């Protein structure tokens, strides 16, 4: 792989070519990555894969017209043709009064913060194989596990470089490691599957292979012989594995593009209380070793810790420059960017905090409800907030987790769900988006 400064040189050179060829403004994104993945199943090596690639994307502006083009070839003659085609495309594009680079006076000044997201390692495939085998062995050793879909271990390194024609140049190098297992329990047509996985920026920060495998096995066994749940209105408790999706729906509804297009159920919610006053939703892109940490956003703006929900109140929208201009506001440092297309928005190291009391305390007064650990389908309407998804989990009876249940639907409206949300104190920072166990009363349950 290239060194970070070489990656940045490539992005800067492409921007320079675009300006010399007649573009009024331009930015370029260079991405390269290399990864090794090992898969095992039933104690035997199943696959070893190594992938390496690089791509560069160019966005050019001619007046208020723009075009984006990308290439996986870095051949100089191909890049020269890329520049001329991008400019020709931009000249034919419709005018957009909101198009343009980020405000120059808001660009990150000085050095990009070092967030400690690269441990400098490139593990031997033999080490990854040993970890995957240990993980699967631990899962298969759980009494009641009858088959395995396998285990995998991976190691990757990536470089992201961004350069703009109005003064920004930044690069980020990161490593990432993953370990997972998926097994089945039960016999015949009554088999149930479950899994566990962990990922980290540093190899040393990964949870142990044995712990990951054991959790996968125990989860699968607990799901065997599911029953049915009664239909009706009742409390629903969301496992952290699926609870983070609820915060994801919040982010989709407060993106600048959704607000500018008036396609959000939270269109008039800025500055209002959406959650209980004990809860806050925090975006922390500067978290050391965070899974999605970044010192600059996809337009070259600085990132910063921010309370998206502060003591229950929505503090504002997530905006890249185009939607900010449309709304008459300033971009918020949440732009995300690939090598093709215009910037969107994303958060980094998101978490919900403010829960109090254990999970046992959270469910103690539930006479009859469900604990959800799996969600299926995409039944979420961000225009109306209507929510309806298939689910599986466990019954809660008289304050205790009871037997497994499956093939039921949970439904409600996201505004009502946010307002009714209560959180436990079991928040862990193990994903790019983290929530504790969540409880929402009054949801509608329909059994299949």
Descriptive notes:
There is one protein chain. With 448 residues, the chain is of the alpha+beta class. Helix content is 23%, strand content 37%. It has helices at 4-20, 76-92, 125-140, 209-222, 240-253, 256-260, 321-327, 359-363, 414-420, and strands spanning 25-41, 44-62, 65-71, 145-164, 169-185, 192-200, 232-238, 280-283, 306-310, 313-314, 335-336, 344-345, 350-353, 368-376, 386-397, 400-413, 421-423, 433-434, 438-447. The longest helix is centred in the first third of the chain and has 17 residues, at 4-20. It starts with a helix and ends with a strand.
Name the features.
19 strands; 2 domains; Metalloprtase-TldD/E_C; Metalloprtase-TldD/E_cen_dom; metallopeptidase activity; PmbA/TldD fold; 23% helix; 448 residues; alpha+beta; 6-stranded antiparallel sheet; single chain; 9 helices; TldD/PmbA family protein; TldD/PmbA_sf
């Amino acid at each position: 792989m290239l060194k970070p400064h070489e990656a940045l040189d490539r992005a800067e050179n492409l921007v320079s070519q675009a300006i010399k060829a007649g573009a009024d403004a331009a930015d370029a994104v260079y991405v390269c990555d290399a990864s090794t993945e090992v898969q095992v199943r039933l104690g035997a090596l199943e696959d070893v894969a190594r992938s390496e690639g690089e791509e560069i994307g160019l966005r050019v502006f001619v007046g208020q017209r723009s075009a984006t083009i990308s290439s996986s070839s870095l051949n100089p003659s191909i890049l020269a043709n890329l520049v001329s085609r991008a400019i020709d495309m931009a000249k034919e594009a419709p005018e957009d009064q909101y198009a343009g680079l980020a405000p120059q006076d808001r660009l990150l000044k000085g050095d990009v913060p070092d967030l400690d997201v690269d441990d400098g390692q490139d593990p031997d495939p033999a080490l990854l194989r040993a970890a995957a085998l240990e993980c699967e062995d631990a899962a298969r050793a759980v009494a009641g596990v009858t088959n395995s879909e396998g285990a995998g271990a991976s190691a990757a390194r990536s470089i992201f470089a961004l350069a703009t024609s109005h003064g920004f140049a930044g690069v980020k190098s990161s490593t990432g490691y993953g370990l997972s297992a998926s097994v089945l329990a039960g016999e015949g047509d009554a088999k149930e599957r479950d899994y566990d996985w962990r990922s980290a920026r540093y190899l040393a920060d990964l949870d142990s292979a044995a712990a990951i495998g054991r959790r996968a096995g125990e989860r699968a066994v607990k799901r065997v012989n599911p029953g049915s749940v009664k239909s009706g209105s009742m409390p629903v408790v969301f496992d952290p594995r699926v609870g983070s999706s609820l915060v994801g729906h919040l982010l989709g509804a407060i993106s600048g593009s959704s607000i500018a297009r008036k396609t959000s159920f939270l269109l008039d919610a800025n500055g209002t209380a959406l959650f209980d006053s004990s809860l806050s939703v925090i975006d922390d892109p500067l978290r050391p070793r965070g899974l999605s940490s970044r010192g600059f956003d996809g337009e070259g703006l600085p990132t910063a810790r921010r309370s998206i929900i502060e003591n229950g109140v929505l503090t504002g929208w997530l905006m890249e420059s185009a939607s900010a201009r449309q709304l008459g506001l300033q971009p918020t440092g949440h732009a995300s960017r690939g090598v093709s297309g215009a910037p969107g928005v994303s958060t980094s190291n998101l978490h919900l905090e403010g829960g109090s009391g254990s999970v046992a305390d959270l469910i103690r007064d539930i006479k009859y409800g469900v604990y959800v650990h799996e969600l299926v389908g995409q039944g979420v309407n961000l225009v109306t907030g209507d929510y309806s998804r298939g689910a599986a989990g466990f019954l809660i009876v008289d304050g205790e987790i009871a037997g497994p249940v499956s093939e039921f639907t949970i439904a409600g409206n996201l505004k009502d769900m946010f307002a009714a949300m209560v959180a436990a104190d079991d928040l862990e920072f193990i994903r790019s988006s983290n929530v504790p166990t969540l409880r929402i009363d009054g949801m509608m349950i329909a059994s299949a």
